[in-house]
Amino acid sequence: MMKRSDKRVKEKRRLGRKQKWLIALAVVVVLGAGAYLFRKPLAVMAFDLFLSGQVEEKLERSYAPLEGETPKPVVKEQKMEPFSALLLGVDQRGNEPARSDTMIYAVVRPEESRVLLVSIPRDTYTEIVGRDKEDKINHAYAFGGAKMAKDTVEHFLGNPIDYYAAINFEGLRQVVDELGGVELPITKDIVNKQKDHEKFTIKANKPLYNGQEALNFVRYREDSDFNRTRRHQVFLNAIANRVMKLDQVSKVPDLLNLMGDNFKTDMMPSHIIDLSKKILLGDAPSIQGFTIMGEGFRKNGVYYDAVNEEDLEFAKEMIQNWNDPETAPEQLIMPDAREKAKDAAADSTKTSGGKNSESGNKKTNE
User: Fold this and answer.
1) Hey, which family's this protein in (predicted)?
2) pLDDT exceeds 80 at position 91
């Protein structure tokens, strides 16, 4: 027969094991909740501990300051001010000369996780700085690389550019595949079928599109140059959304390795890392897009776009507004501001007209 003291010992052990399991369970719950609530800070900490060195080393391969320009210093502050960047999507196939099929003036406001993308259609007719001639704006890159492209866009928009980033579309194809695809709003099959164009079909309503399909999406041009420019904005937004997912953070070094020589920028690696962590800790970026429209014309048998001057002036005003660190978030000029102002004016006119009509009727009746 078991002694009373032995029973007490066994009961204590059983309670002890139960308490340990309860403590372990509590720890798991607390850690799990903490990981969820502080998942962004934890991701940044993990990035600093395990990935930061690899990323900076790989970014060194892409660091390419422009000739004659002094690299901008990295100022580590609590508050990061707005900055501008020229995004160049370069399409080079085989031994063909490189062309900047995408030219986007971007304004980034890191503190508010806001980005403004102003797209310039590649056939826009303007002065090419350094060539003393007018031509398609995308020819600036073919003539003088990123330096001439930057100078030309600065002159065209009347606003300075802090940095440039040139990305070869071939590199993006590999990145999309590494990310497992991207979401694209394709509601109708896209078919490239003209006899002098590369033949392809992109099926509609797929949950994810692979690298080749995404590349075809940005290359498709059988509707219009302006629609193609909008697709480039959509694609950049899709890439940003995919990369911003927390489970993609560990892939950053591999993604940069895939980009290799397909990515060049004059933004210092340490600045890119600081900016990336700032964005990761903030809200999901709010990306606003605007395209400077134009009207097609031919000169000596070559097709160009004559810029819409009203669009150009509005783009300049938006860029200045977004670049100004003193502009409060609620004072930012949005791309749809003109349409909203026109609608408000139309509503005001209708209301005013109705009142005048009533007033006139009263006078007539009297």
Assistant:
1) Belongs to the LytR/CpsA/Psr (LCP) family.
2) no
> φ, ψ for residue 233 (rounded to 5)?
-65, -45
Scanning the structure block, which residue is given the tokens 């998942």? 39
Structure token digits, residue 48: 């600093």
Show the DSSP H helices in the chain as ranges: 4-37, 39-46, 52-62, 139-157, 169-178, 211-219, 225-243, 252-259, 269-281, 309-323, 337-365
Determine which helix (DSSP H) or strand (DSSP E) holds 115, and give its type and residue range: strand 114-119
Highest mean pLDDT among 12-21, 126-135, 266-275, 281-290: 126-135
The residues that bridge with 288 in the sheet, in sequence order, are: 116
Q: Under a CB-based contact definition with an 8 Å cutoff, are residues 139 and 120 in contact?
A: no
CA distance linking residue 153 with residue 11, whole number of Å: 80
- Return the amino acid letter for 210: N
Tokens of 330: 């609620």
Q: How far apart are CA 86 and CA 105, in angstroms?
A: 5
Is 90 exceeded by the pLDDT of residue 305? yes
Does the pTM surpass 0.90? The reply is no
Report the Cα–Cα distance between both ends of the chain, in Å, rounded.
117
pLDDT band at 362; cut points 50, 70, 90 = very low
- Please, how many CA atoms are within 13 Å of residue 270, restricted to the half-sphere of its CB? 6
Neighbouring residues of 355: CB distance < 8 A, sequence distance ≥ 6: none
Tokens at 342, concatenated = 């026109």
Is the pLDDT higher at 230 or at 134?
Answer: 134
94-136 pLDDT per residue, tens: 666 667 778 999 999 988 888 999 999 989 999 999 998 999 9
Which residue matches tokens 């070094």? 253
DSSP per-residue letters across 220-242: --SS-HHHHHHHHHHHHHHHHHH
User: What is the Cα–Cα distance from 292 to 119, expressed in whole angstroms?
Assistant: 6
Output the CA–CA distances (angstroms, integers) from residue 179 to 74, 102, 183, 242, 250, in the order listed: 30, 22, 11, 7, 11
Here the tokens at position 241 are: 């959304």
Evaluate whether 284 touches 244 at the Cβ level (below 8 Å).
yes
